[in-house]
Amino acid sequence: MINFLLARIGSAIITIFGASILAFVILRAVPTNPARLIAGPFANDEVIAQVTSQLGLDKPLFVQYFDYIVSFFAGDWGFSYSAGQPVLSQIVQRLPASAELALYAFLFAFIGAVFVTVLVSFLASKWLDRLLRLLSFISVGVPPFWLALLFLMVFFEQLGWFPGPVGRGPAPGSVHTGLFTIDYLIAGNFSGFATALHHLALPALALALGPFGYLVRLLRANLLDIVNEPFVTVLHAKGVAPVSTHFQHILPNAFLPTLTAGGLILAQLLGGSVLVERIFVWPGIGTLVIDGILRQDYAVVQAFIMLSAIIYIGVNLLVDILYGYVDPRVRRS
């Protein structure tokens, strides 16, 4: 097991450094001069040269990369000149909003997909199975930002059931985690929890439908494969109850690939809700990144790329380790 863990950790470290090189090279390849953007359109060549020297842009490329990596892992993620504050401070302020949105979208997608797929497979109804397949194909093919706009038009403008693009709603009086729903529960304010969940519902559902469809298709295919395995035939021949066969033997074997996919989906949601956040005026990292792109604030964009890579790789590493504990075949291989 130790060799398994060391191999996964080593692979994660190599991947993070690969992502850092990619982020560094891509932004350096952009033709715009960051020093001119920072100095302003009316700065002369002397001022631009001074800013270039302060940023270290006059150093060799490999020296710039080394300084960037050392500074990043030391906690210096650059300075946002459009906002006038360090990038790390901005991300720390906005990360709880994005994390809460991604967490609820993941719960909606994962729990909903497992519940619906297991129920339909156990009932063995052909028309329910066809309806589930149709729903999964539609949800996978529709972009989240289009769903977000559709939800606003129907559930906010037409029906008035949910709040519009007003962000997270009122903040709790005391902040413990930065997640409004959790902080309201800690304070014992259940009406505030309901209000925060009400604001979360539409953007979380817009993000959840795509992963929901993917997980439904994956779990359904695994269930169909496991049903045809010889050990299932043996269980039926021994007279084991269908409920016991389905939930104690078929589902655990079919669930493992879904667990892996769920971890990757959670990592993707943590770093990939940019457009949905913008549509709902959600004060998360996505809104910060779009503003950084529009203002050509490269320090913000570069930090976001690195943070997304670290989250994605970190969650993938945890899922691999969990998979190794759950399935002994992985450890032996």
Automatic annotation (TrEMBL):
Keyword presence, Cell membrane: yes
Entry GO MF terms: dipeptide transmembrane transporter activity
CDD domains (UniProt xref): TM_PBP2 (cd06261)
Domain of life according to the entry: Bacteria
Sorted UniProt keywords: Cell membrane, Membrane, Transmembrane, Transmembrane helix, Transport
Membrane topology: Multi-pass membrane protein
Compartmental location: Cell membrane
The keyword Cell membrane is annotated on this UniProt entry: yes
InterPro entries documented for this protein: BPD_transp_1_N, MetI-like, MetI-like_sf
Domain ABC transmembrane type-1: 95-323
Membrane-spanning parts: 6-27, 103-124, 131-156, 196-216, 254-280, 300-326
Predominant subcellular localization, coarse grouping: membrane
Annotated GO CC locations: plasma membrane
Protein family (similarity comment): Belongs to the binding-protein-dependent transport system permease family.
Protein name as annotated: Peptide/nickel transport system permease protein
Organism of origin: Pelagibacterium luteolum
